[in-house]
Amino acid sequence: MTRALLIVDVQNDFTEGGALAVAGGDAVARGVSALLREHGADYDVIVASRDWHDPTGDNGGHFSAQPDFVDSWPVHCVAETSGAAYDPLLDTTAVTHHVRKGQGKPAYSMFEGVTEAGETVAGILSAHGVVTADVVGIATDHCVRASAADAIAHGVHVRILTDLVAGVGAESSEAALAELAHAGAELVDSPGGGAASDGSAASTDGPGTTSDGAAG
Ligand SMILES: [Zn+2]
After folding, report:
1. Centroid of ligand 1 to alpha carbon of 193 (angstroms)
2. Which domain holds residue 46?
């Protein structure tokens, strides 16, 4: 069975000390590195995305001096800056495809991005005959949510490794996980997991509530 790991936006601006820091981001970076060290060989394809915004303009209304933290955000992940770099706690050695997204516009899903060679995530998954995709990264309630939803729509079996995601809001993260479970995602611990969990997205109880209409 061909399996992919999708690593969403584990970047300096989204982890502790970053412009748009998400609590638990460093733990996710550490936990994903451990997963790759111990189970990297289980994956045929390992895709990592980076939010990669233009240094000029507001990137299609994505940046705002008065952000609402729903559709607009403080400046973050500007291309070629340290904020846009992978968190150094994430070991990217095993990553097979690096995807960048958000150049001049908002892009929550890694499926909106491309590699340097112009490949899309959908194209990569199809080309490799991927059947199952494990999803990890930041943020549960935004880019993980959108990326996992697109993976489900692409037709692969999606598993969210719930101890290896971190969200902006506890409630919105719960809602995102419930929504993804309702859409067909499996919510599971990483193999040997739970170690990186800080409780921010610890529930694996499945859908209790659903949420529609949110941004992303
Ligand atoms: Zn962004």
Report:
1. 28
2. 7-188
Q: What is the pLDDT of residues 66-80, one digit of tens each?
A: 999 889 999 999 999
Residue 56 within a domain: yes
For the entire predicted model, the pTM comes to 0.89
The Cβ-side half-sphere exposure at 210, using a 13 Å CA radius, reads: 8
Opening angle at CA 166, ends 160 and 169, nearest 5: 115
Q: What is the CATH number of the domain that holds 61?
A: 3.40.50.850
77 noted as active-site residue: no
Q: Which of 26, 77, 101, 134 is catalytic?
A: 101
Q: Which DSSP state fits 83?
A: G
Contact between 141 and 172 (Cβ < 8 Å) = yes
* Nearest residue to 7 (alpha-carbon basis) of 213, 112, 164, 178: 164
Residues in Cβ contact with 153 at an 8 Å cutoff, skipping those fewer than 6 apart: none
Question: Tokens in use for 153?
Answer: 């729509």
CA distance 163 to 32: 10
Which of 134, 143, 150, 163 is flagged as catalytic?
143
List, for residues 128-176, the tens digit of each pLDDT value. 999 999 999 999 999 999 999 999 999 999 999 999 999 999 999 999 9
9 part of the active site: yes
